[in-house]
Structures are given as C-alpha cells and as structure tokens.
Amino acid sequence: MFASLSDRLTATFRSLRGKGRLSPEDVDATVREIRRALLDADVALPVVRQFTAAVRERALGEEVSGALNPAQQVVKIVNEELIGILGGETRRLRLAKNPPTVIMLAGLQGAGKTTLAGKLGRHLKNLDHRPLLVACDLQRPNAVNQLQITGERAGVAVYAPEPGNGVGDPVAVARAGVEHARSQGYDVVVIDTAGRLGVDAEMMRQAADIRAATDPDEVLFVLDAMIGQDAVQTAEAFRDGVGFTGVVLSKLDGDARGGAALSVRSVTGQPVMFASTGEKLDDFELFHPDRMASRILDMGDVLTLIEQAERAFDADQAQQMAAKFANDEDFTLEDFLQQIAAVRNMGSIKKMLGMLPGMQQVREQLDAFDEREFDRIEAMVRSMTPLERRQPRIINGSRRARIAAGCGQSVSAVNDMLERFGQAQKMMRQMRKGLAGGMPGIPGM
Ligand code: GDP
To answer: How far away, in angstroms, is 115 Cα from ligand 1 center?
Structure first.
C-alpha cells in the first residue's frame, strides 16, 4: 500500500536536499512531481488540484521557518496537507446517549462489510460494550451464515432471521434486530447489509429503507481500497443514495495505490474512521490521519526530527544572531557554545541523523565521530574568561596553558579547538552575506 507513492514523494524531497533556498522554479518542479505521483496513485483529480495548489502556495511564501531547511520545510508542508486531506483529527464512533447505538454498514458486495462486522464487534467488545451483529444481507447466499461464523469467532452475538426464511425482508430484520438488542440489553447494534457487484438503484433503495427504519447513529460506508479509480464514483453514489457518516477503508493490506484513501474524504466530506488490513479479526485499526500521512511519506522519523528541530530552535537566539550579523559583529566562542547547546537540545547527534532517510553514509562517518568531543569543547570554552570568549584573538600562549589546565586537557587540544573555531568563524563571515534564515549549523565540525 502506498509503496509507489511513497517512493515518488521521497525521491522528490531528496532532490531538494542541500538547497539553501527554493527558487520559484524549484517549487514548481517539486509541485509538478507531487502532482504526477498523486495522479499515478489514482488520487481524484480535484483532490490533486486542491492539494498541489495548497502546497505550492505555502512553499512559495508565507512561512519561512528559521528552524528548517527548505527540503525539511517542504516535507513538513506536504505532511500537514496530507493530514488535512485525510481528515485531520481521528474521528471516533459516536455513541447514542440512549443505547443501543445503531451502526449500519453499507457498501458494494465484496467490499468487506461482513468481515468488518466481526472486527467491529470484537473492537467494541474490547471496549467493554455488549455488541449485537444483525444479519440483513439476505441477498447473497450464505451471507447470514458467514456473519454467524464471524460473530462466533469474535465472541459476539448475532441476530439472524430464521433459516429457511432467508428471502425475508431485510428492513423488517433490521428493525427486529434493534428491538432485540433493546430488550436483551445489547448496547451497540451493527447491521450488516447487502451489496451488489455494481451500484444499482434497488440496492440503494433497500439500504436507504434500512437507514430510515433504524435511524442509525452511524452509517459506515465500507470501501475496498483496491478498486482504484472507481472508488470515488462508488463513494459518491452511496453518499447520494444512502448517505453515510463515516468511511471504512478495507483491504489496505493489498497493493492498492492509495487513491481511494486519499480521495474519499475530500470527495464525500465524510471522514475515514477505520481501516481493515487483512482477513483476520485483528486486522483492524482506527484510522489516524497523522499516522497514515507519515506512513505515506515513509520518512522514518524524519517528521519527529523536524518537530524536534523546531522545538530546539530558539527564535530569540536566532534573532540575536541575525542582529549580530547585521551589525557586522564577529562570531564568538560564546556563539559557538550556544550552537552546541542548540544541537544538544535535539538529543544525540547520531540518533538524530539516524532518523534521516538516505543518511547511511553520514551515519557511518558519524559512527567514527566521538560525541564526547562536544563535552571537551564545552569544557574548554567554559574555562575561558568572558573576554576571551568574546575576543578569541587575545588567547595567547599563556592563556592557552591556563585554559588547558582549567579544563584538564592538553594545550594541543586547546590549539586544535581554537583552530576549528577559527575555521567556523571564517565560514560564518562568508555566510553573513548569504544568510537566508535557516538554522545556524555547526560549521567546522
Ligand atoms: P461483503 O460482501 O461486503 O460482506 O464482503 P466480505 O466481508 O464477505 O469480504 C469479501 C472478501 O474480502 C472476503 O474474502 C474477505 O475475507 C476479504 N476481505 C475483507 N476485508 C479484507 C481486508 O481488509 N483485507 C483483505 N486482504 N481481505 C479482506
């Protein structure tokens, strides 16, 4: 699921890495790639348009974050927009104030309704409810029996019409099922309904009649994620013919390209609430837009890293730094120390880089880098006087010896550090002209 879309998006982001700032051409090229990737994943055209327009506008303008580089910023924007089209918040079941809560399932034949009834029953039971499954799919031979077997497996009661009476009236069965629940103390009723292979008027009418007769608290439209481009049309037909309050995506374990998942919310206005990810009872989960977006972006924990960077980034400090540059002041050892502290805020460097995709090589280099180096540098700077930190030029031989003694390190280690600092300072001077925001890195390290 989403594999190809993930690959395409990740490749797009990768091509932005290392860029200091994004030109309008970069943004256009990126948005074009995202657009193609979404279309190839069968995302509905209006959704693609809306999505890419939003990404484009945000990438071009408004938010220039101090904490993130352009590539990270684009990832962040795409992630947020994905969460948006997936519905934002996780939408949970609405339970009736006066039980029983009635949940009706609707969808095409083979979409996974009966399977879902069992999963939902089990899920509700785990939440200490007393669910009852009601078999109203009287169309498909064996559907009643299948629900009974599923219910048994899930340890959930099933209400079914008497055998031999199987061609009865599904509306009457639904009504009787809800009555049965009320009288027997079941607090949630899940009504399984009939589907057809294609959308047809008779099936819609039947589902609409069941809805009218039982006044459900939730009508869940079960959508097979594998049906690709037909998903949108089917969803629209059910929206208009029966109406629903939420969507369940089934067969998300398959190799569907993701179009249904990404389109259905925008097209129908109703949120995806659950995901069915296999044939077994446990292959079922609440649908969390944020988690689904990170799954699609397949960015490891890069999003966590971005959040951390934003948190660690001290806006005041950045402003001070910018002001310094504007005033043509020099980069001092105090700034150096501040930068080290900022990086430390983000947790261990190695762990941080471990979260970035495609950073294998850097990670290997880092394995060779001793993180205690930071401790040593910090100790040296701390054993300097404030004046020395601000004006490193004055650190002569005798001062070096004193500093080395003060932090328990060799004079050559102090020399080494000052040399590195000198390089950093030079780099900062060069950067001063081209400073375009962005988190100050740790030059020379
Ligand atoms: P219904 O006609 O809507 O009631 O659909 P069923 O519940 O009978 O499911 C149709 C077929 O899809 C059955 O073979 C199920 O085992 C299978 N199925 C249902 N949900 C999933 C799922 O999430 N993943 C996979 N791989 N198969 C599923």
So the answer is: 6
pLDDT at 108: 94
The interface predicted TM-score (ipTM) is 0.98
Ligand 1: residue of 1, 105, 115, 253 to mutate (most ligand atoms within 8 A of CB) is 115
Q: Is 77 within 8 Å of 58 (Cβ atoms)?
A: yes
122 and 241 in a single domain? The answer is: yes
Measured in Å, residue 276 CA sits from the centre of ligand 1 at 9
pTM confidence score:
0.71
Instruction: Give the tens place of pLDDT for each residue, 79-117.
Output: 999 999 999 989 999 999 999 999 999 999 999 999 999
Note whether residue 126 is domain-resident.
yes
**Which residues fall within 8 angstroms of residue 395, CB to CB, at 6 or more apart?**
384, 388, 403, 418
- Assess whether 135 and 282 both reside in one domain: yes
DSSP 3-state of 134? strand
Does the annotation list 196 as a binding residue?
yes
Task: Please determine, for residue 329, whether its predicted confidence score (pLDDT) is greater than 90.
Answer: no
- Residue 107 among known ligand-binding residues: yes
Q: Is residue 421 part of a domain?
A: yes
Q: Which residue range is the domain that position 67 belongs to? A: 3-85
- Looking at residue 386, its pLDDT comes to 87
Q: Flag whether 441 is in a domain.
A: no
- 418 marked among binding-site residues: no
Mean pLDDT of the region 152-169: 81
User: Does 12 show up as a binding residue in the annotation?
Assistant: no
- Ranges of H-type helices in 215-278: 230-241, 259-268
Q: What is the separation of C-alpha 101 from the centre of its chain, rounded to a whole number of angstroms?
A: 30
Domain total of the chain:
3
Q: Ligand 1 site: residues with CB under 6 angstroms?
A: 107, 109-115, 195, 250-251, 253-254, 276-279, 283
